[in-house]
Specification:
By secondary structure, the protein is mostly helical. The chain has helices spanning 2-24, 36-58. Helix 1 packs antiparallel against helix 2. Keywords: Membrane, Transmembrane, Transmembrane helix.
């Protein structure tokens, strides 16, 4: 179960980073490219992933 939590948290963190980069226009090829709302969504999503990683690393089961 701990591994599943860790992987899910990594996915959330990675999606947040991707959305932020797309919002900045650094990753091309999507309707999200260059739209600042995706930068903000990514900036909110990344800390959720970080909190998830800390929660997954602290859980015992």
């Amino acid at each position: 179960m701990r591994l599943i939590r860790f992987v899910l948290a990594l996915i959330v963190l990675g999606l947040g980073a991707l959305w932020s980069l797309q919002g900045l226009g650094l990753v091309k090829g999507s309707f999200m490219t260059g739209q600042t709302q995706w930068l903000y969504i990514g900036l909110v999503t990344m800390p959720v992933g970080i909190v998830g990683l800390s929660w997954a690393s602290r859980s015992r089961v």
